[in-house]
Amino acid sequence: MVRGRLGGARRAEPGTVHGGDRLVVAGDGRVDQLFQQRALTSTLSKEKLEPKLPWTADFSAGTVRFIGLAELAGALGLVLPAATGIAPILSPLAASGLALMMVLAALTHLRRKEPAAIVLNVVLFFAAAVIAWGRFGPYAG
User: Are 94 and 57 in contact, with CB atoms under 8 Å apart?
Assistant: First the structure.
């Protein structure tokens, strides 16, 4: 319910953005930027990535490229379906997939004893989880 001009409650218009949705929409853009930056692994060679991303030494070039493409697809999946109105169910699915990827990435960094990288994975996990919750849950449009 939304408050009307005279203070009375009225039904919200379909398709309008409300307080909780604004948080999820704003969160989509920031999280999308973070995942797009991480998705550079899909475009750069493994040799160029190793100095910046030491975990790439543990994986083949094809696997590193696949991880980057999956993160890029997830980042696009966070924003495009909700923004275009085409198959909006894909946004929470993309957020759920990215949350799962962050759990797996944190496990990789834990195995490699890279605590600083785990912090970023945890932040991105919670951001993706909040978006998934907002899109699947009570704020789903």
Answer: no
Global confidence as pTM:
0.70
CA distance 113 to 116: 9
Is-contact 55 114, C-beta < 8 A?
yes
Instruction: List the structure tokens of 12.
Output: 């919200």
Alpha-helical runs (H) found in the chain: 19-38, 46-49, 61-84, 90-111, 115-136
Per residue in 61-118, pLDDT (tens digit) is 999 889 888 988 998 898 888 788 888 889 999 999 999 999 999 999 999 999 988 9
d(CA 36, CA 29) in angstroms, rounded, equals 10
Domain map (residue ranges) of the chain: 19-136
